[in-house]
Amino acid sequence: MAERGMSVEGVRRRNLGEVLRLVHREGAQSRARITAATGLNRSTVADLVASLAEAGLVEEREPGQTRRVGRPSPIVAPSEDVVAIAVNPEVDAIEVGAVALGGAVRVRVREDVDHLLTPDETARIVARVLDGWRTHELAGARVVGVGVAVPALVRARDGVVRLAPHLGWRDAAVGEPLREATALPVVVGNDASLGARAEHLFGAAKGYDDVVYLNGGASGIGGGLILGGRTIGGAGGYAGEWGQNRPGILDDADRRTAAGVLEDEVSRWRLLEVLGLASADDPTLARSLAEADTAAVADEVGRQRRILATALANAVNVLNPSVIVLGGFLGMLVAADEAGFDAAVREHALAAPAEGLDIRPAALAEDRLLIGAAEAALGALLADPLA
Questions:
Q1: How far apart are CA 324 and CA 353, in angstroms?
Q2: CATH of 2-78, one of 3.30.565.10, 3.40.50.1970, 1.10.10.10, 2.40.50.140
Q3: What is the C-alpha radius of gyration for the chain, rounded to an integer number of angstroms?
Q4: Residue-wise pLDDT tens digits, 92-102
Q5: CATH number assigned to the domain with residue range 204-363, chosen from the 4 options 3.30.420.40, 3.10.100.10, 1.10.3210.10, 1.10.10.10
Q6: 271-295 pLDDT, tens per residue?
Q7: Which residues of 122-143 are buried (b: 16+ CB within 10 A; e: fewer)?
Q8: Which of 261, 284, 334, 346 is the most exposed place for a label (fewest CB within 10 A)?
């Protein structure tokens, strides 16, 4: 009997997670839609929703007016008062956000820095920001954990940053000082892999099972892979380091380094330089590129687009994705002329693997890494909501 009871409880916990993940990733749902999506019966769904509501994880509200006969099904929505703290340390700034169940960024802050952050300094900044939010923007909210998106090689099994070359971090247990400073569980991951997950769940790659994602940030270019609906991390979790590949540059006049890698040639700082900017957040950089009308800016954007198109054609030939999503400044390069960039990639790719391919900028824009980091921090809650 005890074994049977444990088995029943295990099934219930799994079903609770399924319902919570559904409303978290798909938004507010009627009980009837939850019943149809999960295959559970109505009374079971009612019980699960009641338990999640009692735990403060979802909210039930009356539906809007409908012409259907009979009592309409209540709407179940994820609670905006359950949040994860998301952190993205970079070479020029640190961004911290609070992301609620449902994927909305409730509050965020970007602090520019004029030096390379250490893991300990990162932890102190996050703790200070969180303390301020707890008394104001997040007063009364339940904070469940911290997710950190690092431009680095991050070991999957324990979250140790093996190498963040631009930050100067090597074999750094970044989670430890953050856990001590915030008294919260911490999950650390590669920024581009987390960005890929965010775009797959909530953004431009939603509905696609085979995704190549490239993230362009201040530290360079990283990538994430989703194949057959599964995130691909490789043996140690280091897959997707697109920026460290040697680019195929068809015209020597486009080369800026003697033997540089992709992120040496396709570079955020080169765009800032030609725009005459010392630093900028993503919205400012995008606006500056859109408004620039000088030949120097047009030439640099064109040069980077040509090199990037060749690199992506190789990804198309090797991985045959359904969609390529480009985040950060890479998305800005595409936005300059989406149709022209699509044609340039196809010019260098084999026709068969390029059939049906979509290439698009990240839909979550500057929120993509924060949402991805928060998703990692919410993982334990979504797997077992009442643990």
A1: 12
A2: 1.10.10.10
A3: 22
A4: 999 999 999 99
A5: 3.30.420.40
A6: 999 999 999 999 999 999 999 999 9
A7: bbebbbebbeebeeeebeebeb
A8: 284
